[in-house]
Structure prediction request, 809 residues.
Amino acid sequence: MTSVLFDVPGPKARRRQRLGTVLGGVVVAVLVGLVLWRLGSNGQLDPSRWAVLFDTRTNVPQRLLEALLNTLQVAAVGMVAATVLGAFLAVGRLSDHVWVRVPVTVVIEFFRAVPLLVLILFCFLFLPQVGVSISAFGALALGLTLYNMAVLAEIIRAGILSVDRGQSEAAYGLGLRKWQVMTSVLVPQAVRRMLPVLVAQLVVLLKDSSLGFIVGYLELLRTARSLVETLNFQFGPIYTFQLYVAAGLIYIVVNVLLSQLAKAIEKRTDRSAKVAATTAVDMTAGTPPVAGDTQRV
Amino acid sequence: MRLTRYAAAAAALGVVLTGCSSEAGDQAQDAAENTVEVQEDVSFEAGTTMAEINEAGVLRVGTKIDQPGFGLANTEGTPEGFDVEMAKIIAAELGLSEDQIEFTETVSANREPFIQNGQVDIVIATYTINDTRKQVVDFAGPYYEAGQDIMVASGNPEGIEGPDDLAGLNVCSVEGSTPAENIRTNYPEATLTLYDVYSKCADDLLNGNVDAVTTDNVILTGLVAGNPDAFELVGNPFTEEPYGIGLTLGDTEFRDFLNDTLEQSFEDGSWEAAWDATAGAITGEPAPEPPAVDRY
Amino acid sequence: MSFLADNFPLLRDAFLTTLALTVVSGLLALVLGTVLVAMRVSPVVALRGLATFYVETFRNTPLTVVFFFLAFGIVQIDLQFPSRFITAVAALSLYTAAFVCEALRSGINAVPPGQAEAARALGLDFRQSLTTVVLPQAFRTVVPPLGNVWIALAKNTSIAAGFAVTDLTATLQRLANANADQLVLVFAAVVVGYLIITLPSAWGIRVLERRLAVLR
Prediction:
């Protein structure tokens, strides 16, 4: 698609582009150099300051690893629960029955509209008042789930609506009931089709777990801050920058890995769908193809 | 433990890569231990909170983990400080050892709900006794009298002697805190910058974004201790902040027990020992006179 | 109820701060995001790489971390924003721009290739075909995803509370601490403040979506 927007560059354009690239590269290099120079002159590049991140005697690496596991745990629970509930809500919102559609719509719109921070606090402070005891982990997981299930429901709904009408018509033609059409034909295709958007939202969920600080859940960012506060007290503010850089980098690495994983899954399901389609042809007539329309994803 | 082994491997790699070790690592050491003698023979009337806690074998305490001297998590994540020592003293009277205390971080806006919902038995978290709070929770104590004070850049460039000098200056504190409300109501000419934690205020004072930081003197003392070259305390407290132990509203028996325990610790020297090992170790000053317990 | 009346000026100011943060950051993010997406589909490899790097970095970093670096990190390179409100606007718009860029890119990908081909066949160059043919159509198809980004932004402003901006969430903390006996009311008031921004937005987006929907 993008290639349609411009011609294959000729020799002159190529020269211009090369010049532009070199100039741009120089500008970027100068900027990066400036930043490093200022950081260096403020003592932030001092190796002993960075060593704290790897020095097990300080307990810093252990704490960060433990905190990362806490983050991953709460995010994993939130992801699974939000996806499952989101799929149900998406189907519910497309229901023919008003008494299903309206309440589901209200639920989705409400949870989409309230800030997550407030939602987590609410779960933490008010569920116990009505007799449901909840831990910091539970409140955070529940908050993440409620908010993201609403967002995911909308994504999956858009996916369901984008599946060719022929798919559901064919399924109805085979005599499937409505919920069968939904669960075995539309939702699987919708989820696969919306996979990139879904994963982008799951990345958001993982990052949002950092809001657990409000209920005192020791996830990655809160732990980094706690370490900063402790080390500040003992040594002055010489590790602040390093610890926050470390926390930021860990988030980026984990999230990029998550996106890569999603891409790998996408490729795999794409291939297996094609294989399924071919085998379906080989089989006797009457076996419904599992999923047909995946190549366009 | 596998986790530790991986971390150790990563650390070895890191130390090799960076080619040197960190100051923090070189100085890693155990903090001074203050032990409290656990009462072996304790018996409480059945049905009281004391009996319940004793039976459960665990005392659930809400505390701060970001306030040096009172409640600050060490690098292992365990809170240390005067509040923590007070919790140990109370646990000992309940027949529980310090390993049987379960600390939960209390953060802004959750101290009262924590107590009301029974998520903790007591809150010891630089928790000022005041009238609005008394409507929803009960307080034992006070066990310490703090006062609002001001921290400035070293050398005190603005020449701040007290709150009246704050007019027209940028003052940093924490949103929702009592000191912030005090400045807002009584010294409206000061410009307030309000963060969610005091460490950000310290950063801002360091950067020159604000001229002063104000909150309870004991909290400021902890901040000054972290960076004595950059900060200094004005040392002129202008409010009274009695720190109390929060507990469920109406649990008079438990409150009396806590008050008795406090008074006893004032007398037998354990209160003073707790002070010397924690907050006192920062300031280097001897323990003050213990406050009079208020059995309202 | 007198509690709400007493604190109405406070809540109103907080609401206006949240609204201002959302609108200003939203506009800036829209501009920056459009520039980024133009870079991402441009013929110059370096620009594409730069834009991709930007988007991947900001999309994968928690907003709190972005805030922290703009508030306290850049001091280490001897820079500073003039006020904490501007810091918050900068953090929110830099962060949101990455999401705007992704939403727009999905929109550009949804414009049928024939459109761009036709534009090129008419002799329009890259800039012309992008600004007069592709982007206008892309903006239409991206109304729902852009709307989601906008709503997310409105709620993300709550992070600014931790960085010295007196928005609705900061006021929640303040009132909650000062009125331990009125927690439910405090929560309700603040949530309503956010709903006043987000619910009409969601509704407006749906109307806009229906109006602008391109029939193919």
About this structure: Chain C has ten helices and no strands.
